[in-house]
Design a protein that fits this description.
390 residues; alpha/beta; elongated
């Protein structure tokens, strides 16, 4: 009898010890559901998958640290099949049928624009994690808050560098697509004070000879060439420069930070400036910690889409904690006033429409085959002044 009693006591003590070693788990019924529409099939599925992985990592970390408002965070994700036209009806389904507590926006600007209309109609807060186009926030709205890096921010970092070097005459070129033109127009608008920006020169996709643009830049006595397009466009510009023995005092191409730029040009890529929207090697402590955790979880390093999903979750959680509950008006006020360091930079929005004004891609320069942040070496050297790097 005594032996049996001792056995029960020992087993009880063992159970308590094991329970103390296990992380605290929230009861499954105490959940807080975050709804999102994210492409899992169709043309956007590959990029959107990383966006979802960023959100999933955020959810896992939230639950490991005790959840949100004392409740376990769950994701309810619907697939729009990469068809933006489905976004509004699917968000209506999340709200009416699934009765989700919080909303994160879809992947892509077109889908976000339609989803935002449903959020506004329902007076529900939505975090815009992956809609970078200005049109998404072009109309006054109360419930949409952007955590994506806006297209309009990509050229803003190069203007202070040009001003410091006393380079006032700008030649701004853009590929004929929505993103590139928006980047160029925003840079052109910001350059109205203190610069001579001329008109934005638009070129067709697939352009491989930029001799016509070089002739215009020379005629305008341009001191800084600022370009927006894809990485191959930027490489073809440099090839044209070398062939025509042309070197502006500053050469910036937003896509020059892409690894393929150096692969396409070799040492001719040297001294080019590019824009980095997310690179944990150059980023803040939040970016480095996120990249480490993401790589452990998914076995590959994160790219911008993953960082965008994670940032959307971070900002949403910070706003919920600030509001103290899920009241949508309190949550809206918290998001409007919130200033927060994130993996993409400092979150801050325009109060009139929720557009992101805190994130600014960093300008880097290629030196000895590496992207180097900080003050660049200017002027961009003439072709006969360059020496081979050994």
């Amino acid at each position: 009898m005594n032996t049996i009693r001792l056995l029960f006591i020992w087993l009880a003590g063992l159970s308590i010890a094991l329970a103390q070693e296990r992380p605290a788990r929230l009861p499954p019924e105490l959940t807080l559901t975050v709804g999102a529409v994210i492409s899992q099939t169709g043309a956007h599925a590959e990029l959107a998958a990383d966006y979802l992985k960023g959100l999933q990592l955020w959810r896992e970390q939230m639950n490991e640290s005790g959840g949100l408002l004392g409740r376990r965070v769950e994701l309810r994700v619907l697939d729009d099949n990469s068809r933006a036209v489905r976004a509004r009806e699917l968000y209506a389904e999340l709200l009416s049928d699934d009765k989700v507590d919080l909303l994160v926006g879809p992947y892509g600007s077109a889908a976000t624009l339609l989803a935002a209309a449903e959020a506004e109609r329902a007076r529900r807060v939505m975090v815009n994690g992956a809609g970078p186009a200005a049109v998404v926030h072009s109309r006054p709205g109360r419930y949409l808050f952007q955590t994506a890096v806006p297209y309009s921010a990509y050229g803003l970092g190069v203007l202070p560098l040009a001003a410091t070097a006393d380079l006032r005459r700008l030649f701004i070129v853009a590929r004929d697509d929505v993103a590139s033109r928006e980047m160029a127009e925003a840079t052109h608008g910001a350059a109205q004070n203190g610069f001579v920006p001329g008109e934005v020169e638009v070129y067709r996709p697939g352009t491989v000879d930029f001799a016509a643009q070089v002739a215009k830049a020379r005629a305008a006595k341009a001191e800084a060439w600022i370009a927006f397009g894809d990485v191959r466009d930027a490489a073809e510009m440099v090839k044209t420069f070398k062939r025509l023995d042309y070197a502006p005092q500053l050469f910036f191409a937003a896509a020059a930070s892409h690894p393929r730029f150096i692969a396409l040009l070799g040492q001719d890529a040297e001294f080019s400036l590019g824009a980095v929207d997310f690179d944990p090697r150059l980023g803040n402590p939040e970016a480095r910690a996120f990249a480490k955790a993401f790589t452990v979880r998914w076995t590959v390093p994160p790219q911008l889409a993953a960082a965008s999903g994670y940032t959307a979750g971070m900002v949403l959680a910070a706003a919920v904690r600030s509001a103290g509950n899920l009241d949508q008006e309190r949550l809206r006020a918290a998001l409007a006033e919130l200033e927060l360091p994130t993996v993409l930079g400092a979150y801050r929005v325009a109060p009139e429409n929720g557009a992101q004004i805190g994130f600014k891609p960093e300008v880097v320069q290629i030196r000895k085959g590496r992207l180097e942040p900080g003050t660049p070496l200017l002027p961009y050297p003439q072709w006969n002044e360059r020496a081979l790097i050994k």
